[in-house]
Design a protein that fits this description.
The protein has 107 residues and is mainly β. Helix content is 8%, strand content 41%. Strands 1, 2, 3, 4, 5 and 6 form a six-stranded antiparallel beta sheet that branches. A hairpin with a 5-residue loop joins β2 and β3. The termini are far apart.
């Protein structure tokens, strides 16, 4: 068994976007209803091509040691062996936010 910390891929919804991040630390937060993530891992390629969504994530989480994600926003958590590229993508029209109030249009 490897002594290296596990690598987690977490997908969650934030402001109508699907965020996919790689982190080394993931636990239940002492704040009720939240997951605590830390030690962000960003894939650093030495290639000429730059992924704008990965760069946006690096900028957004620069200087952040810990982040707290609401449980209802989490889509999926995986333990992975290889790190990939962090990214932000659009959800599309077939995903509704929770909670959804009938009579009100989702934003």
């Amino acid at each position: 068994m490897s002594s290296e910390l596990p690598l987690y891929r977490i997908q969650f919804i934030n402001n109508g976007k699907n965020y996919q991040l790689y982190v080394r630390e993931l636990s239940q937060s002492p704040m009720f209803g939240f997951i605590e993530i830390g030690e962000f891992v960003f894939y650093s390629q030495s290639a000429v091509l730059v992924d704008p969504s990965a760069e946006k994530l690096k900028t957004e989480f620069a200087g952040v040691n810990r982040s707290y994600i609401p449980l209802h926003a989490v889509i999926r958590i995986d333990v992975v062996t290889e790190k990939g590229s962090a990214r932000i993508s659009d959800l599309g029209d077939n995903v509704a936010t929770f909670p959804y109030f009938p009579g009100k249009k989702p934003s």
